[in-house]
Task: structure prediction
Amino acid sequence: MKFVYDFSEGNKDLKDLLGGKGANLAEMTNLGLPVPPGFTITTEACRAYLRDGDHVDGLAAEIDEHLTALERQMGRRLGDADDPLLVSVRSGAKFSMPGMMETVLNVGLTDASVAGLSRQAGGNDRFAWDSYRRLIQMFGKTVCDVPGHEFEDALHEAKTAKGVTDDVQLDAADLRELVAAYKKVFAEHTGHEFPQDPRDQMDQAVAAVFRSWNADRAVLYRRQERIPTDLGTAVNVVAMVFGNLGADSGTGVAFTRDPASGEQGVYGDYLANAQGEDVVAGIRNTLALAELEKLDKRSYDELMRIMATLEGHYRDLCDIEFTIERGKLWMLQTRVGKRTAAAAFTIAAQLVDEGVIDLDEALTRVTGAQLGQLMFPRFDLAGDPSALTRGVGASPGAAYGEVVFTSERAVEAAAGGKPVILVRRETNPDDLPGMIAANGILTSRGGKTSHAAVVARGMGKTCVCGADQVAVSGTTFTVGETVVEEGDVISIDGTTGRVYLGEVPVRPSEVVQYFEGDLDPARANDPLVAAVHRILTHADSRRALRVRTNADTGTDAARARRFGAQGIGLCRTEHMFLGDRRELVERLILARTDTDRDAALAALQPLQRADFLEIFREMNGLPVTIRLIDPPLHEFLPSLEELAVRVAVQHEHGRRDEHDERLLAAVRRMHEQNPMLGLRGVRLGLVIPGLFAMQVRAIAEAAVALAAEGGAPRPEIMVPLVGAVQELETVRAEAERIIAEVIGDSPVEILIGTMIEVPRAALTAGQIAEAAEFFSFGTNDLTQMAWGFSRDDVEGAFFWRYLELGIFGISPFESIDADGVGRLVRIATEEGRAARPGLKLGVCGEHGGDPDSVRFFHEVGLDYVSCSPFRVPIARLEAGRAAVDTDGSDHR
Ligand code: ADP
Ligand code: MG
Ligand code: MG
Result:
């Protein structure tokens, strides 16, 4: 097995093996761009190291060989005392995990080679000692777990001693002393001296990068982003170039288009006389990229040319990291850049306009999750709230919450159900738990490329960065005279970057207004709305799955139709038994005689007919699947505790209420240990005479009424919780009789089908299909029953542990468990269709609106998915994506 690849040997398609950074460094090298020479140690080597420990067969020899070649190419030897080669040792996994893993710069510097480095730089002692102190700091932190603040404290002390604020104001002698101080910190924490053998430094750094794959924060980030845990990271060893050689040097990051809005035109930050992380860490305030043109026009022009080359080559927005060493530009990284949801749509549509990609490809460049983010509400600024301050809108959305200043407090408060805004000077990877817990993130330093910005965008979390008027100290922050304490409420707008005191009301997003058809005409040409319209329309033209909605009322049905629903896949009837109808339901449940019961049902029937008529009207011409009553009837009665107390109190006062006592007796009689597995669904219909019949009659009458008005109702009656064909046959026989009687010669047609939500139904689908014109997979119950989970109990009790252990990567209630529950769906699909060709198949669980699940249902070959109204556009998009993206790979 080959463990090490020279940059000239790789290419961008080898991300699995070389990681994203290594693969793209190789790609740039082969494009002839100025990349410092180097090599990549593969993810396979990392996996072997994490499995076998230090002695991976053949690895050391291969590294030797490549290091020797690099030394020959550079004409310098690693850490040589007179003329040292220095390298960076950089992590780089298949999926980018910003700031999660480690990089060590200036490897090869020792007490001996620091003088050689100075000579190389024309006697620049300051530069050499600055590089050395950075190595000790990064090496200490990364390789030996020395707490980073120890170094920062020492640096701070050095600056205070000298009476300066900026590290560029420290001279060579100061930095030399700082190196001594750093070495002391290092020795105190590790029990040994800072290693003076360059090769030993490099080997230790490589091993540390391998290990960083399993650091807590990396594990947490992967879980959050659903990145598999077993990929490992590659390690890149790259000849150092120096941005800290003086005013004609510097380092920067850039995007080929704005990653927040998608607007055309380069965007970036530059910092003169700096190295590596200085730009993203927000240590000094950066310059806008445009300023570089004035400082160093030649490098700027070359950078623009290279960025155009990269965009043309990758056919997408790229982000890059570069360094200028004494007027010479070096490319240190590129990748197809992360972007906001809005930018993803806008850029995809731009690239179609530019003739770079076609609409099918545009569809693969956006996700349902991103569309979901665009449907988030925005702040309603009608009341003209004045902003407290303003930063950079780094990740869009509107968020409010109580201010907290630490990750721990954010986690605590969020666990107590409070929305919080995490306010920090800047974030670092240790803040990740708090960032996940918070509603939004506000920092006083850093721009769109800072840690906070990048991570928040990845999570779709609202973030405002670089609000530099915000002065954070302890548990307060101030803006001018205004003091904001921990626990005060603020609102932040991740699009405009504005920060408001108090809770600002929110309104629907432009995209939602567009769906609703009430977008302000002035915004009709909004590039984002136009892009969403265009891509979603294309998805509709490509998708095989139809998209219906779950809706129980006319209002929901109408909204869903505006969002593009092609019918109702699940209309629950239980809410129709609540409110002022409760009394009738109680009468039904308490009925002592057939006459009592029939009277209650007869009173409910016209109400039900009106419910259905309203929904059929809204969905005129489209199918409406109505589920016959499903929950156990005791759910409609007051709770046992409530009644028992009420009756006891009555007794105490010497009163008796006959109705309450009968209710209490009924509730006692009907009490179930496991209501989810008890008297409900079809079982109710078989036990309580006339109940289903009443609903069937109401459905048929409503349909006939609409047809008489000239409408085109398409009812589908769905029987819940069927496990055996005999159950369905019994219900069906009665229903058919009633339907025939009601319909007479009206042109109405009513289908009868069943939910598949009990595992036995899936396993006997061939039999059940004989009596069903359609199946609708109730994947919530199917998941509960396939796993033996009671959802309400398990999610809080132990799912966190299962997620932690990796038993599932995501809750099976969120995304379909393809191997288990999905297998039941496949079996029922195949056997159902074999028994009845033309059997209609759909899904009505919450999975119907989950992007990954939609893809699965497309692959299984269902006819439609049904989801809540707000998820309809998401399902439309994902169904389109699934249809064009046949290989199904890498749809993150
Ligand atoms: P990350 O994955 O966190 O971006 P990198 O490996 O890209 O970490 O390293 C961070 C920064 O360190 C780079 O953006 C670059 O500025 C600097 N750097 C890395 N390698 C070199 C090198 N060979 N020469 C100069 N600077 C380097
Ligand atoms: Mg980088
Ligand atoms: Mg169910």
